[in-house]
């Protein structure tokens, strides 16, 4: 075997590598747990676990300081597989260990696929309201909507990071270029008349000139969300069309005309459209008698499909989600005052993997301990003679 | 142990770590109702805050938990409440000048103390301050279990310049704002009444004594 390949094999099958990786993962989990106080659970997951490296910001430079969850988990994954292929020989006596490790490998793969593929959205509905889209509660997008067609809206959705990095956007569906000028990850809007400010106010069109934008600290609290704002200039073939203030608080409410087309634009929560719709028929908010303590939330919804063949009514309540079209709809929040219901919408093609892997691990351990137990019992029976004492 | 591959592996992974980029998408959907303009264009409330039940809504979420109560001086004229205001008074001086006292509450910390102090400073044309100056720019008032951060900001000593005398108090996960805004001379004249008023602020009695 080639010398280099042999070294690579020895590296991957090394049990020392396993120990080093487990130690690194301990440190990573410890650091992430401490940092959760500052960043909250979502940001910690992204920074420490769903990344190849943990970066520290030194001014404008990002320095990798520690291996992230994907790197440690990925190496552990290949280490486990390589060690099994190279080192372990299959025998029935070790079948439990094999099963347990297979479960562990599947668990690592499941988390990897969840991190890559899982998407979480929310769908807020009032009674009678129908929606065919869910909205992210952490990500935003700049939506530029061509509303010229009386039946359809043509949407160009620009993700928030493109605004943050001030990437100029040229899209074949837009008769202008979009040039982000200024971006705030979290900002407060006030009326200009009541709050003059020295901060740069670039807007020349839309409602922007009436408003003052004041950046505020980014929040990482789980029950709060950031309200990003940006100034974007639209530049057509004949020059600038103006600069608009867009903010998650303004949604897509501002309109303008260009090249004979009517447009709406605004920053909104990133939307995921589905080929079916949900209509909220009824909400139920039960509390324990004599208290305000919630007992059960439930939403009766109707699934509407384009050909109406799959239309049906479903009751979604706590711990009884609706699984439909690869999505899971959980009862998430309920506002009893105005009867609005919020469903959490999760898309995770690998949702079964953790269950299968846990079952494999349990089965493997049962088999392994069972083999040992029967062997031990057999040995004990053979070693100790039975003495019957008569009275 | 053969760790000679580690630098190569790290270099490859590091290079690929920065490759993920969000894509611009375009699609066609059935006609939708345009989003309405939010109430900020008719009100004066801050717009930051925690997401309410309807995350897509552009309405400003106001705090909906337990309330605070207060005893206002008899000379302050109560005004009708709006969607944003928990309390509203007009304070009139002997020379006919008027100041506006608003009481608002929003969920969460509404961007934090510094952002709100700077928001008020911006409203009287003062530059924002940093974290280090916050302690000297504000005073604290403890009363009835509440801790008020009192802010007194005016741009210049001219008697007709707008001045804001305000207090920010966190209460049960929400932030309450008591803001007296008016001509410098009138606010100065009402300062002791405002501070006494703050000391009357207390949590409202719960609707149900026991559960």
Layout: helices, strands, pairs:
The complex is a heterodimer of chains A (about 400) and B (about 210).
Chain A: H1 3-13, H2 15-49, E1 53-58, E2 61-67, H3 69-86, H4 95-117, E3 119-125, E4 130-146, E5 152-159, H5 160-164, E6 169-170, E7 177-184, E8 187-191, E9 211-215, E10 229-236, E11 239-247, E12 254-258, E13 261-287, E14 294-304, E15 312-317, E16 322-324, E17 327-335, E18 340-347, H6 353-383
Antiparallel strand pairs in A: 1-2, 3-18, 4-5, 4-13, 6-7, 7-10, 8-9, 10-11, 12-13, 13-14, 14-15, 16-17, 17-18
Helix pairs in contact in A: 1-3, 2-3, 3-4, 4-6
Chain B: H1 6-17, E1 25-30, E2 68-69, E3 77-78, E4 85-92, E5 98-107, H2 113-123, H3 131-137, E6 138-143, E7 146-154, E8 162-171, E9 174-183, H4 184-198, E10 202-203
Antiparallel strand pairs in B: 2-10, 3-4, 4-5, 5-9, 6-7, 7-8, 8-9
Question: Would you give an account of this structure?
Answer:
The complex is a heterodimer of chains A (391) and B (211). Chain A is of the alpha+beta class and 391 residues long. Chain A has six helices and 18 strands. Chain A has helices spanning 3-13, 15-49, 69-86, 95-117, 160-164, 353-383, and strands spanning 53-58, 61-67, 119-125, 130-146, 152-159, 169-170, 177-184, 187-191, 211-215, 229-236, 239-247, 254-258, 261-287, 294-304, 312-317, 322-324, 327-335, 340-347. In chain A, strands 4, 5, 12, 13, 14 and 15 form a six-stranded antiparallel sheet that branches. In chain A, strands 3-18-17-16 form a four-stranded antiparallel sheet, with no helix packed on it. A four-stranded antiparallel sheet of chain A has the order 6-7-10-11. In chain A, helix 1 crosses helix 3, helix 2 (15-49) packs antiparallel against helix 3 and helix 3 runs antiparallel to helix 4 (95-117). The longest helix of chain A is centred in the first third of the chain and has 35 residues, at 15-49. Chain A is globular. Chain B is 21% helix and 31% strand. Chain B has four helices and ten strands, in the order H-E-E-E-E-E-H-H-E-E-E-E-H-E. Chain B has helices at 6-17, 113-123, 131-137, 184-198, and strands at residues 25-30, 68-69, 77-78, 85-92, 98-107, 138-143, 146-154, 162-171, 174-183, 202-203. A seven-stranded antiparallel sheet of chain B has the order 3-4-5-9-8-7-6, sandwiched between helices. Chain B has a two-stranded antiparallel ribbon with strand order 2-10. The longest helix of chain B has 15 residues, at 184-198. The chains are: A alpha+beta (391), B alpha+beta (211). Chains A and B meet through helix 1, strand 4, strand 5, helix 5 and strand 8 of A and helix 1, strand 1 and helix 2 of B.
């Amino acid at each position: 075997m080639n010398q280099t390949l042999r070294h690579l094999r020895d590296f991957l099958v090394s049990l020392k590598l396993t120990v080093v990786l487990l130690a690194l993962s301990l440190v990573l989990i410890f650091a992430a747990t401490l940092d959760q106080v500052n960043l909250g659970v979502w940001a910690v997951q992204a920074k420490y676990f769903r990344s190849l490296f943990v970066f520290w910001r030194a001014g404008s430079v990002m320095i990798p300081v520690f291996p992230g969850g994907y790197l440690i988990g990925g190496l552990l994954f290949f280490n486990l597989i390589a060690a099994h292929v190279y080192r372990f020989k299959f025998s029935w006596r070790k079948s439990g260990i094999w099963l347990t490790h297979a479960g562990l490998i599947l668990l690592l793969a499941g988390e990897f696929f969840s991190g890559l593929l899982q998407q979480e959205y929310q769908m807020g509905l009032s009674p009678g309201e129908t929606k065919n889209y869910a909205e992210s509660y952490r990500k935003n997008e700049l939506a530029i909507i061509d509303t010229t067609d009386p039946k359809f809206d043509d949407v160009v959705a620009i993700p928030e990071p493109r605004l943050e990095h001030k990437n100029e956007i040229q899209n074949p569906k837009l008769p202008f270029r979009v040039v982000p000028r200024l971006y705030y990850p979290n900002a407060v809007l006030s009326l200009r008349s009541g709050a003059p400010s020295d901060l740069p106010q670039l807007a020349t069109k839309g409602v922007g000139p009436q408003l003052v934008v004041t950046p505020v600290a980014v929040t990482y609290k789980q029950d709060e969300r950031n309200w990003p704002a940006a100034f974007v200039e639209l530049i057509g073939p004949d020059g600038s069309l103006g600069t608009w203030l867009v903010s998650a608080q303004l949604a897509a409410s501002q309109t303008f005309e260009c090249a004979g087309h009517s447009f709406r634009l605004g920053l909104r929560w990133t939307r995921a459209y589905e080929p079916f719709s949900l209509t909220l028929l009824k909400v139920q908010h039960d509390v324990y008698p004599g208290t305000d303590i919630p007992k059960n939330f439930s939403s009766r919804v109707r699934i509407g499909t384009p050909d109406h063949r799959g239309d049906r009514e479903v009751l979604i309540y706590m711990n009884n989600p609706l699984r439909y079209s690869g999505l899971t709809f959980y009862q998430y929040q309920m506002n009893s005052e105005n009867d609005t219901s919020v469903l959490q919408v999760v898309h995770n093609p690998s949702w079964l993997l953790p269950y299968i892997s846990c079952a494999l691990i349990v089965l493997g351990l049962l088999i392994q301990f069972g083999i040992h137990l029967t062997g031990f019992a057999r040995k004990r029976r053979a070693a100790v003679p039975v003495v019957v004492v008569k009275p | 142990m053969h760790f000679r591959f580690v630098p190569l592996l790290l270099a490859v992974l590091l290079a690929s770590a920065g490759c993920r980029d969000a894509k611009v998408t375009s699609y066609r959907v059935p006609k939708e109702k345009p989003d309405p303009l939010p109430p900020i264009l008719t009100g004066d409330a801050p717009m930051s805050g925690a997401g309410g039940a309807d995350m897509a809504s552009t309405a400003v979420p106001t705090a909906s938990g337990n309330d605070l109560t207060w005893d206002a001086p008899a000379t302050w004229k109560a005004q009708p409440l709006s969607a944003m205001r928990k309390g509203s008074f007009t304070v009139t001086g002997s020379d006919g000048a008027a100041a506006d006292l608003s009481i608002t509450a929003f969920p969460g910390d509404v961007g934090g103390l510094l952002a709100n102090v700077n928001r008020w400073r911006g409203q009287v044309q003062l530059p924002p301050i940093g974290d280090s100056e916050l302690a000297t720019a504000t005073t604290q008032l403890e009363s009835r279990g509440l801790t008020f951060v009192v802010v007194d900001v005016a741009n210049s000593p001219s008697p007709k310049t707008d001045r804001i005398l305000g207090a920010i108090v966190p209460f049960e996960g929400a932030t309450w704002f008591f803001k007296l805004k008016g001509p410098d001379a009138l606010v100065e004249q009402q300062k002791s009444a405002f501070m006494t008023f703050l000391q009357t602020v207390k949590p409202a009695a719960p609707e149900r004594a026991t559960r």
